[in-house]
Structure formats: C-alpha cells, structure tokens
Amino acid sequence: MPRRSNPESARPAHRQLHGRAHGKKLRAYHAGLVETLLPRLALPGGHEPLDPAALFDFPIRALVVEIGFGGGEHLADEANARADTGFIGCEPFVNGVAKLLARVEEEELRNVRVHDRNALDILPRLPRGCVDRIDLLYPDPWPKARHRKRRFVSMQALAEMAGVLRPGGELRFATDIDDYAAWTLSRAQASPFFEWRAESAADWMVPWAGWKPTRFEERARREGRSSAYLTFVRV
To answer: Structurally, what CATH architecture does the domain formed by 61-234 represent?
Structure first.
C-alpha cells in the first residue's frame, strides 16, 4: 500500500497533556490506595533510562504498555490472563488510576506498574525495542475541529511508540469515532515505522481474540455506535 504524505507538521516530543486529572472525590478506600499502593507501583521519576526487568520482582517474558487505561478494566483482565507478562499502564486521571489500584490490590496482581502522567514522558526512557505491544484503546477523540490537535495520535507520538516497539510488535488502536479511526489510519500509513496489514473488513471490524468490551465500548453500543479495531505492525 503506498505511503501518504505527512499529514501534519512535526511536533515537540513532549506535548502538553489535555483533559481532566481529577473527577469526583475519591472514596476513602481508593484515596488510601493512591497514598499507599501507587508509590509502590509507580515508575521511578526523573529522566534516567528505565530497565523493564528491574521494574518487576520476577522475570517477565514480554512487556505491554497500555496508554490511557481509563478505569483499568482491560489492563487488569490482561494482567490476570498473562501472569508472565509485565504491564505498564499510563493514565493521568486519578479516579481511573484508583480503580486500577483496587483491582491490583484485590486480585494480587504482581505484573502491573503505573505511570500516572503523560505516556510520552516515559517512552523515551524505555530501551529501544523492549515493548511487545502497545494498546491505545478508546482515547479521547477531541471531536471539535479546533481541538483535534490535542489527540494523542500524531506523527511524533507514532515515532515515540515505534521507538520502543520490537520489530513485529503491535500497536493496537480502538475507537468508536469514525473520524478518529480515519485520522489514525492516515497517520500510521504515512509513518515509515508501521504497516497496516488488513486484508478484509474483519481485520478492523472484529476485535482481537479474548477481547472483553470496555465500559467505553459498552456505552458506544448503547448509543448505536460501532467500533474499529486497528492493528499496526512495527516494521
């Protein structure tokens, strides 16, 4: 499939993160987890390189990064299903972080680590080619035209994600917003780092094996919207 021209100009490596950081006041249990459990699971601060093997207290066979995990349902389910895989979840919304922490605590998940800030701050700190998969599921679509520059998917973000993905690794993207699916597809096809290998409609209309609908997806179905599931392979 021919490459398209770059759909946007280059952007700074570290962009301002838009969206809410706080929602409703946390319940005492969740607030306690943010105070006590989050510091134990949070990635080290600063600008020093990160060693994925040192982040976990057991040898991991693979590494998955989920960017914008919302309430953490998908991340926790995946961590439960793949106990030998390390998961790094990035989510700046403290209420969502608290929900994931509750799952980690209650289900004793040892293979989850959390970054409660912008994912683009930690991707440059990870070793090149150390990540097997990146999940970007139902990111904020910023539907108004004047806000679309706030969307997470950009040429710069794709380059950052490609840098940490191993050759053959996957970037999985899901959305119920047609415009955002087209936005992402056009940029991924313009990127020299990714290939979209879809051959039939099933390749973008059918979710991945073992997929459980997220709460965003369930809301989309209630409101009559279907979803697109795009898989881009690191080349």
So the answer is: 3-Layer(aba) Sandwich (3.40)
Q: Terminal CA-to-CA distance of the chain, rounded, Å? A: 14
Taken in order 194, 199, 205, 208, the sign of the CA dihedral is negative
Residues in CB range of 71: below 8 A, 6 or more apart: 96, 99, 100, 215
State pTM to two decimals: 0.89
Lowest mean pLDDT among 55-69, 112-126, 129-143, 208-222: 208-222
DSSP 42: B
Between helix 94-107 and helix 73-81 the angle, nearest 10°, is 30
The catalytic position among 132, 140, 178, 203 is 140
Mean pLDDT of 97-119: 97
Q: How many CA atoms lie within 13 A of 168 on its CB side?
A: 0
- Annotated active-site residue 179? The verdict is no
